[in-house]
Amino acid sequence: MLNSVVPIYFDHNATTPLHPAALEAMTRALAADFGNASSVHALGQQAKAHLDTARARLGALLHADAQDLVWTAGGTEADNFAIRGIAEALEPRGRTHLVASAIEHEAVLNTCRHLERRGWQVSLVAPTRDGLVDPAAVDAAITPQTALVSVMHANNEIGTIQPVADIARLAQARGVLMHTDAVQTVGKTDVDVGALGVDLLSLSAHKFGGPKGAGALWIRRGTRVAPILTGGRHERNRRAGTENVPAIVGLGVAAECARRELSAHAEHVGALRDRLEAGVLAAVPGTVVNGAGAPRVWNTTNISFDRVEAESLLIALDLEGFAVSTGSACSSGTLEPSHVLKAMRLPPARTQGALRFSLGPTNTDAEVDRLLDVLPGLVDKLRSLTRMPAAR
Ligand code: PLP
What we know:
By secondary structure, the protein is an alpha/beta fold. The chain has 2 domains: about 10-15 and about 260-385, Aspartate Aminotransferase, domain 1 (Alpha-Beta Complex); about 20-255, Type I PLP-dependent aspartate aminotransferase-like (Major domain) (Aspartate Aminotransferase, domain 2), CATH 3.40.640. The chain contains 13 helices and 14 strands. It has helices at about 20-30, 40-60, 75-90, 105-115, 135-140, 165-175, 195, 235, 245-285, 310-320, 340-345, 350, 365-385, and strands at about 10, 70, 95-100, 120-125, 145-150, 175-180, 200-205, 215-220, 285-290, 300-305, 320-325, 330, 335, 355-360. Helix 4 links the parallel strand 3 and strand 4 (about 120-125). Helix 5 (about 135-140) packs parallel to helix 6 (about 165-175) and helix 9 packs across helix 13. The mean pLDDT is about 95. Pyridoxal-5'-phosphate (PLP) binds near residues 74, 75, 79 and 156.
């Protein structure tokens, strides 16, 4: 049976709790607004009005024209839509090369790999040791065949904020389209599509207080993107399928709340993250923050614990009621170290012991204090049991 105790939740980059206002609006929409937004009758038009309101709210959050937003079923679909949609549109013109960073989310990396199997060339640009993508390295990777550059706005594991505007400027100068996966910044920082200068931007509702399975792709007006879901004429022929109205209502309300609460949250959560990070470094010897030398989104810290297997510490913390995460993936029973930390060329001891703490607006000082009380003892215990050699 699952433990029903609500943990102290430091895993907001994985997902966030629904904002109470989004929950309320969704509950109402689920109960009453069952109309199909394509229907001509009043119930259908009411559903369509909900979609329009949500679109306007999301447009306001991104400083974007609402008409340039296409609903998707989350960040993964938005990334797929951007990359596959541009690939299909530009392949007939001989553009069969993509540039992405090596620290993208799997939604981007595995979509690039899919195109590679279809004969496309893909260049993955390695980051610096601080987890930053160098615009000059992206520029150097662009060829006359390049269709698209895709570099994420903030990394989900270490929180580093990439120089997307600089990269977009370079891409534009070379006649290449630019996509950014902004799943980890929309709703956390002031994302302005015009200031970023990109052509396509992905986002996901469940990372900022909205529901899972809802997201959007912003497409600069005039950019040709082939649809990846074909069928009816929804979303002005850009994405077929009856819209999930309650989820989109929730996304819209979460976007509206995020816009209003952005600076208060940045201050509150940023101070908590800084205190957690400084507290761990002071209380636990043999710790180091990954990506510390780069600008980082204010809610994330990724800390390596010397002579500790991060998964063991994650489980020990879980038993104490804390939800955190590692970047490693479990495939066929073996733990693969994080592709992000590996791409930063960190030594294995540092990648194996890396834990991500990602905070949100509902976290409190008392929760950080509780972690700082418990963590040193857990690390001591794991170190006393390990045969891992000291890394430094
Ligand atoms: N891109 C990034 C950077 C993410 O962190 C995530 C989710 O973890 C995704 C894409 C995928 O978004 P979704 O879970 O909405 O499919």
